[in-house]
Amino acid sequence: MESSRLVSIIFFVYTVILSIGSINCKNKNNLVTNQAALFVFGDSLFDAGNNNYIDTVSSFRSNMWPYGQTTFKVPTGRLSDGRLIPDFIAENAWLPLIPPNLQPSNGNNQFTYGVSFASAGAGALVDSFGGMAINLGTQLNNFKDVEKRLRSELGDADTKRVFSRAVYLFHIGANDYFYPFSANSSTFQSNSKEKFVDFVIGNTTSVVKTLYKMGGRKFGFLNVGPYECAPSSLIRDRTKIGSCFKPATELIDMHNKKFPDVLRRLQRELSGFRYALHDYHSSLSERINNPSKYGFKEGKRACCGSGPLRGINTCGNRRGPSQGYELCENVTDYLFFDSSHLTEKAHRQIAELIWGGSPYVTGPYNLKALFEFRLT
């Protein structure tokens, strides 16, 4: 217990030091980061706590114990026992923890080294869990609000410099491909599956192009992970417990086949556009199917939840105390923390692949190369 408390204190001091070291005072009211900033867009894989500040359902929040138990010792809004992928990316980039955009304590200087717009439940389409999450288009609007604040504080030239040097990190699409199987989706019902996937990718591409017009040049992407094989999906068909949810598989596979071609086209069309694409589907599938190879004992059973494989989303009594939940003894044995979200240990491993992976894993650049690249 004392050792874990010491680790938490050291981690806190480390982030404070990074926060101080990453800024350069130009005058009393003007703080400009020396590092490339990190702006984060997406869903629950990246949500650092934005859903704490919106009116949404409990299943899209994690502001209750045992979320946050490993590193922070309190719930932060991250859907994990500890840190998320962007937290480790920020650490590798010598940045402090990237805060949620809606955090009230954010000052303008906070935005010069990055902020997260991600929201649990978010999709690229407006009607995917509409009203319960901050969709990708609204995340872009929130970024535009940040731009206005920075231009007011820093001026046009310094704001442009922050944006051109920054890295923009995305994970989006999974919720779009699951929503039609839990609620009515007019977009899904009135179009072919291929056209539906094109809409998801098209909305994502539109946001990327807008960020490019605003000065963004360096982008990181994860393809859609194998969430059809997450614990929650493995129990959808109670007659076939342990089988992946095939209806979503078809959409996810189609997305992951099309998306690299779209990024290559953007690279041809947009001067100076550079990107890293991590094959998250493969890296997570590997760990689901071969957990012991990566230091896990459980690849398909969640640490926190109830029912078969702890695949029912009750972690933290989010469905009320009457249903209850189970919590594993050693979270580091598990790939999944709850029915759909990974443990800190898993996030660390994936982040390392995104940061420094070979072109076969993350390419054509990795994030380390993007952060080190300096535009003239």
UniProtKB/TrEMBL annotation:
UniProt xrefs under Pfam families: Lipase_GDSL
Origin: domain of life: Eukaryota
GO biological process: lipid metabolic process
Keywords: Signal
PROSITE patterns the record matches: LIPASE_GDSL_SER
InterPro entries linked: GDSL, GLIP1-5/GLL25, Lipase_GDSL_AS, SGNH_plant_lipase-like
A molecular function (GO) term: lipase activity
Name of the protein in its database record: GDSL lipase/esterase
Provenance organism: Arabidopsis suecica (Swedish thale-cress)
